[in-house]
Design goal:
The structure holds two protein chains of two kinds. Chain A is of the alpha/beta class. Chain A has helices at about 1-25, 45-60, 80-90, 100-105, 125, 150-160, 175-190, 205-215, 230, 235-245, 255-260, 270-285, 305-310, 320-325, and strands spanning about 30-35, 65-70, 95-100, 115-120, 140-145, 165-170, 195-200, 220-225, 250, 265, 300-305, 325-329. In chain A, the strands form two sheets. Chain A has a seven-stranded mixed sheet, sandwiched between helices. In chain A, α11 (about 255-260) links the parallel β9 and β10. Chain A is elongated and about 60 Å long. By secondary structure, chain B is an alpha+beta fold. Chain B is built from 19 helices and 22 strands. In chain B, strands 11, 12, 13, 14, 15, 16 and 17 form a seven-stranded mixed sheet that branches. Chain B has a six-stranded antiparallel sheet with strand order 3-2-1-6-5-4, sandwiched between helices. In chain B, strands 19-18-20-21-22 form a five-stranded parallel sheet, with helices on both faces. The longest helix of chain B has about 90 residues, at about 5-95. The chains are: A alpha/beta, B alpha+beta. The interface between A and B is medium-sized, with 37 and 33 residues.
């Protein structure tokens, strides 16, 4: 009797510890969705997805284990994005990650209940999608990729690299209101920097080609490309045309510089995906999106492609090179 | 061997008793052993837990203190680095000649210090000269007047200014850091520092698994926390007690767990804090109590399990040990109970190899001893019973022999009386009367001898030891047997001796007389020699004869009653066969050894060993007191009470012959009645001991004495020679004559009582002496009726 009791106590004590430790992970598999707005084979998209996954794994999730991520890849217009969001919601994700202003705009009306974490949408407050940066108040929160003032900063940078430029086109996806904001910011600073700034469509290859041709036809033209998934998807085309037409260009996404673009200045977007993983984790652990403040980027990297500069025949000042965070040979 | 059912009953009883006791003893032992083992175990366990708890707690406190100080140092390092970078710029900027160069320096600062979002160069007068931003267009020479701003004023005054933390767009924490150049004209560099960068530092600080490090500013507002959302929400931390206490300047570790700042779900955290200088912030580290003490809890669990295991083991071991101790004790108890119940063949089997086993062995040997004693006892009882049976048999033999020997003279008597009936001639009649008398004497001798044996067996005879010269005794022997020896033509020689011995004269004389009588009787030719030899303290009295001798195998039997060695003639005239029986009994009474050696056909030697005594002077030879027969009886009134009519008539005839008046009665009442008729006071009462209706002679005498109101002289006559009767009579104080009483003995007794002088003591022993001292009946004793 005593011996049995003792064995039971001993045995249960021995069994209890690993059981208690395993109990949390042995619970149900959590499911989230990620709308990427990139082609699946796009390295830039993969870079972001990997950062997101790693961010979750750093916080203890096991993807394919206790967490399932439904990635939705693809490039399309607003309608396509809206239908993609609807499809994703059918999978009943606990959290939905959306990427880029166009996707945020498509996702926002799709659900009032499914928490969404977005990356992009500098104008989330002005659009009324969230109540304030500190307390979003609804089912959405996220990370701003760039502050609006960066449009002016690009223009300043472009003028520094190519002082002769007096006409600058901002290649935007009009479906992305953030890009519009940035374009306006650039336009606002244009007079001060003695340039003319115009916004041009860049949603499709045709539009991009037309815009580039138009710029190439005008001397002393420059190009600014704010971050937008749809536009970024065509970055090789853009970089190639810029090289062909020797158009000095400043890009908002590092991927452009990496693919031969002259210079990029902007937030580290994969880092934002990593931070977004933190918010997803917090929501999965019970916090409400309404209480999670919308965050702004803190780090901005200046990346210069030296080969492109050489090809363009642009002599970069040693000071500028010294200020660069990354130089691509 | 044993009665099964009773043994089983005893078993059950024993088992019941032991079960009760066993339980008690076992429980006692178990409790004791458990206490002995468990209390130290518990004490050690508890003190171990307490000690490790204390150790762990102090280690925790130390660790947390180190953590928080390290964390504070890191944050301090961050701000110092920012400050150092800015100071570098202030120096370079002052030396830079062109604004373009200054702009580069400031941009480089932004490049170097990512936390700085915007930097402004202000000249000595407080005018903004250059503004470089990470996010917006740089501005040159705006000339904005900052001379009244605290950041300028304080920086100019103290060279360094750490502004309060503010939240840009009510969200991101910022701090203004302003540094003045070495010279006043160098102005001030003002940097806006995004404190979100402290997050990186803070979130990299590992505080256990779930612990948190966080930073609050001097007002208690949260600046950095791993959960940046808390910071961006601009949380006021001063409501938490630990923050309050820290803000008051108490930087010791909180003694008690407090609610967590980081997680409202965690109620208890251990927290410590350290100041971060220069900004004057506070670094906090908090660790949930649950996690902090988890090692303690797990060690507590382990200790508890071990303790429980130890206790269980202790209890089990105690039980086993106690059983080991109790079981043999129980076996001992049960065995002892069975031995006590009489089962002496019970053996206790204990094989513990210790003192208990030894005890069991002792119990066993005790039981064996008991068994042996018991068996010895039983054997003795059997032996004794056997002996008694033999004695009884001997008695029967004795009685048969006695009755045979009595028949002989009786038969002779009958023949003589028949002759008397026919023959009345005086000569013939006288011869027949002489033979009748001889037969009566023979019978009398036999009865007296029997009586003596009875007395000796009843231990009525008490020896009276005196010291006397042996020569006295020898002389009497010589006197006594000289005539008889002469008649048989034997040589009787008594060797004179001067030694004194210690003995009873009369009884020793009796022994010697009997032996001498035998010697004379059984010697047909040759002689008898009586003498004494000294052997140390012993005088050996020896009687030698040249008689027939005794065969070796008969030497032991000669002392038995009625034993006579068969004579070649087969006649038994010489003796009765009781002499040596009496000798043996007297010797053992006197504690004198008797020895006999004999050569068949060559003679015998009887030796009595008597202790020597120192010579005594003077020695008075006891004299046989034979009362003078005068006429004290004449005219005296004698009452005789006797239930046997024939004896009564004989007594009456004798007493009347002696001149007495006689009243005879069958009992005391008849006597009283007769006396009442005569109206005469009797002078003597002679009563039979045993009277009708269970009365005794004592009672009859007492009755008459009380009736006459005076102590009338009285004595008893009894035919009863049982040892019991003899003792009773001796105790009563009355004199007692044993039937058959010889007329002369009766006359002596009566005369003595009727004489006025009653001083002569006439006791039972004397009577014996009177009858026995004469081996041959005296010729002058008159024939008397035998009764």
């Amino acid at each position: 009797m005593k011996r049995r009791a003792f064995l039971t106590a001993f045995g249960s004590a021995a069994v209890a510890l690993p059981f208690a430790a395993g109990a949390q992970q042995a619970a149900r598999t959590r499911r989230i969705g990620a709308l990427m707005l990139y082609r699946e084979d796009d390295p830039e998209g993969q870079l972001r997805a990997r950062a997101f996954r790693e961010g979750l794994e750093e916080r203890g999730w096991v993807i394919g284990g206790n967490l399932q991520i439904d990635f939705h890849w693809g490039v399309g217009d607003f309608e396509w994005t809206s239908s993609a969001v609807a499809e994703m919601l059918k999978l009943a994700p606990e959290v939905l990650l959306v990427n880029g202003g166009q996707a945020v705009r498509a996702a926002q009306p799709a659900s009032r209940t499914v928490p969404m974490v977005f990356i992009g949408a500098v104008d989330a407050v002005t659009q009324g999608w969230i109540q304030s940066l500190a307390r979003p108040g609804g089912n959405m929160t996220g990370f701003v990729v760039l502050p609006p003032s960066l449009g002016a900063k690009w223009l300043e940078l472009l003028k520094e690299v190519a002082p002769q430029v007096n006409r600058v086109a901002v290649l935007i996806n009009t479906e992305n209101s953030s890009s519009m904001v940035l374009a306006r910011s650039a336009a606002a600073a244009a007079e001060k920097l003695a340039v003319e700034a115009i916004a041009v469509h860049g949603r499709t290859a045709a539009e991009i080609e037309a815009a580039m041709e138009m710029l190439a036809s005008t001397p002393k033209s420059g190009l600014i490309v704010p971050p937008d998934p749809v536009v970024t998807a065509h970055r090789k085309l853009i970089v190639g045309l810029a090289a062909r037409y020797r158009l000095p260009a400043v890009y908002g996404v590092r991927g452009f510089a990496a693919d031969g673009g002259l210079i990029s200045y902007g937030a580290n977007i994969p880092a934002l995906f990593r931070q977004a993983a933190g918010y997803v984790d917090q929501i999965l652990r019970g916090e409400k999106a309404a209480d999670l403040p919308m965050q702004r980027p803190t780090t901005f990297d200046l990346v210069i492609n030296l080969r492109a500069a050489k090809d363009f025949g642009i002599a970069l000042s040693p000071q500028l090179l010294a200020l660069a965070n990354e130089l691509i040979e | 061997v044993n009665d099964r059912s009773s043994a089983a009953g005893a078993d059950i009883e024993v088992a019941g008793a032991t079960a009760k006791i066993h339980r008690r003893l076992l429980g006692k032992y178990v409790r004791l052993l458990v206490a002995v083992v468990s209390l130290p175990l518990l004490a050690i366990g508890a003190s171990g837990i307490w000690a490790s708890y204390q150790d762990h707690k102090s280690a925790l406190i130390r660790l947390q203190r180190e953590q928080v100080e390290a964390a504070a140092a890191k944050i301090g390092q961050f701000t110092s680095e920012v400050e150092r970078q800015i100071r570098l710029v202030t120096q370079l900027a002052s030396s830079a000649s062109t604004s373009e160069q200054r702009r580069f320096e400031l941009r480089l600062l932004l490049r170097q210090v990512p936390a700085i979002t915007e930097v402004v160069q202000v000249d000595g007068e407080g005018r903004e000269q250059l503004k470089v931003s990470r996010l917006a267009i740089d501005e040159i020479n705006t000339g904005t007047d900052l001379s009244q701003e605290p950041k300028f004023v304080i920086a100019m005054a103290r060279k360094v200014y750490y502004g309060p933390v503010y939240f840009q767009d009510e969200s991101e924490p910022y701090m203004t850091l302003a540094l003045a150049g070495p010279r006043r004209s160098d102005g001030v560099v003002i940097a806006e520092v995004n404190l979100k960068f402290i997050w990186d530092i803070v979130s990299r600080i590992k505080v256990g698994e779930t612990g948190r490090a966080f930073v609050v500013d001097a007002d208690g507002r949260l600046i950095a926390h791993p959960n940046s959302a808390l910071v961006l929400r601009n949380t006021d931390m001063s409501r938490f007690p630990q923050v309050q206490r820290a803000l008051r300047g108490d930087h010791d570790i909180a003694p008690e767990p407090v609610p967590s700042v980081s997680d409202p779900l965690i109620n208890e955290v251990l927290t410590s804090q350290a100041a971060i200088t220069p900004p004057g912030w506070l670094m906090f580290v908090e660790l949930p109590v649950k996690e902090a003490f988890a090692p303690i809890y797990s060690s507590l669990l382990v200790t508890g399990v071990v303790l429980f295991a130890g206790l269980s083991l202790a209890v089990f071991a105690s039980f086993v040990l106690a059983r080991m101790m109790v079981t043999p004790i129980r076996a001992l108890q049960a065995g002892a109970a069975r031995i006590g119940g009489g089962a002496f063949d019970q053996r206790i089997n204990i094989a513990t190899g210790d003192e208990l086993e030894a005890l069991g062995e002792q119990f066993n040997s005790m039981a064996a001893q008991l068994q042996q004693s018991y068996e010895t006892l039983e054997r003795k009882v059997d032996e004794r019973t056997h002996q008694l049976k033999l004695a009884n048999l001997a008695k029967s033999r004795f009685l048969a022999a006695a009755s045979h020997d009595l028949r002989q003279p009786l038969h002779a008597l009958g023949l003589f009386v028949a002759q008397l009936n026919g023959k009345v001639e005086p000569v013939e009649g006288t011869g027949i009367l002489a033979r009748i008398n001889a037969a009566v004497v023979a019978m009398n001798e036999l009865f007296n001898a029997l009586l003596d044996i009875s007395k000796l067996d009843a231990e009525v005879v008490k020896p009276n030891f005196t010291k006397f010269p042996i020569q006295t005794l020898f002389r009497r022997l010589e006197t006594t047997f000289a005539e008889a020896a002469r008649e048989k033509e034997l040589l009787l020689r008594v060797v004179p001796n001067t030694a004194f011995v210690s003995s009873d004269f009369i009884l020793l004389e009796r022994i010697m007389m009997n032996l001498a009588s035998n010697a004379v009787r059984y010697t047909d030719c040759g002689g008898v020699v009586i003498g004494a030899r000294r052997r140390g303290e012993i005088l050996r009295l020896e009687i030698w004869d040249s008689g027939r001798g005794i065969l070796k195998d008969q030497l032991q039997s000669i002392f038995a009653e009625f034993y006579q060695i068969a004579s070649p003639q087969g006649d038994r005239r010489g003796g009765l066969g009781l002499g040596l029986s009496i000798v043996e009994r007297l010797c053992s009474l006197l504690d004198h050894r008797i020895e006999v050696t004999s050569i068949p056909g060559g003679g015998s030697r009887f030796t009595v060993l008597v202790p020597l005594a120192s010579p005594q002077v003077p020695f008075l030879e006891p004299q046989a007191k034979v009362p003078a027969i005068d006429e004290p009886c004449r005219g005296k009134q004698v009452v005789v009470i006797e239930d046997d009519a024939m004896v009564l008539e004989g007594m009456r005839g004798l007493l009347l012959n002696w001149g007495c008046h006689v009243v005879v009665a069958g009992n005391d009442h008849a006597a009283l009645a007769a006396l009442a008729e005569l109206r005469k006071l009797p002078d003597l009462i002679i009563s039979d001991y045993r009277l009708p209706a269970g009365k005794t002679g004592f009672e009859a005498i007492a009755q008459l004495r009380s009736a006459f109101g005076t102590a009338i002289p009285a004595f008893l006559i009894s035919g009863d020679t049982g040892p019991e009767r003899l003792r009773e009579a001796a105790a009563s104080g009355f004199h007692l004559l044993h039937k058959p009483v010889q007329p002369n003995a009766l006359r002596a007794m009566v005369s003595q009582f009727l004489k006025k002088d009653a001083s002569i003591h006439y006791d039972v022993k004397m009577q014996m002496e009177v009858t026995q001292l004469n081996p041959r009946p005296s010729a002058e004793s008159s024939p008397a009726p035998w009764f």
